[in-house]
Amino acid sequence: MSEFEDKDKDKNKDQQKNLKHKNAMEKQKTQVDQRIEEASTERGVAVLLTGNGKGKSSSAFGMVMRALGYGQKVAVVQFIKGVQLSGEEIYLRDHCPQVEFYQMGTGFTWDTQDRSGDIAAATKTWAFAKPLLANPAIDLVVLDELTYMLAYEYLEQSEIIETIQQRPPQQSVVVTGRGGGAALRDVMDTVSEVKDIKHAFKAGIKARKGVDY
Ligand code: ATP
Ligand code: MG
After folding, report:
1. Choices 3.40.50.300, 3.40.50.2300, 3.10.310.30, 2.30.42.10: CATH for 41-203
2. Ligand nearest to the CA of 52
3. Cα-to-centroid distance, 177 and ligand 2 (Å)
4. 213 and 87 Cβ atoms separated by less than 8 Å
5. Using one digit for the tens of pLDDT, what is the confidence trace for 113-138?
């Protein structure tokens, strides 16, 4: 076969690939457009980000950034206090005074080993979160690491679930943390499980500023 015939064949193959791609994309567009048309309910969503992999809280803070981009009102409540300050806390406190930010003020279980102290702190934190979940002026409420309060039975599951269900219709809520239980999953509109495939920490790489905290 000549060099020209080879080139022609390649060109043909390329054209076929392009055509196939175009057809597939057309089909996909029709399907996506149809689904967009069918989604007619306009209300806030409840999102649960769970699982053992990395990416739950950082995804929640990604949504905070999105909401702030549209000038929406955001509140963040963190149900755990790490040993480390986090970049998101520093940023929100320094640059986003309009964001309501509350963090449970104590260490946590494995540090404090003080169950009643933990319960008192969790209860206080929930007391801050609850009115936010009843405030229609707030577009997005993040309840970071809330699932642990349920797992340790520090907070009443039924009250949390009812409060989430009864929040203002246009308000979205994001809950993060491993586990959380079937009852919580049931009332959430979107549930994503972040799967741990591997994590740098397990290879001895230190938690990294700007990536891990
Ligand atoms: P991130 O805040 O990075 O999105 P996360 O919210 O999904 O993480 P958490 O359980 O809240 O996960 O843990 C927060 C910290 O623990 C982060 O520093 C994160 O990198 C680390 N981490 C998360 N998953 C794992 C894992 N599977 N193994 C080791 N460390 C992890
Ligand atoms: Mg987290």
Report:
1. 3.40.50.300
2. 1
3. 6
4. yes
5. 788 888 999 999 999 999 999 999 99
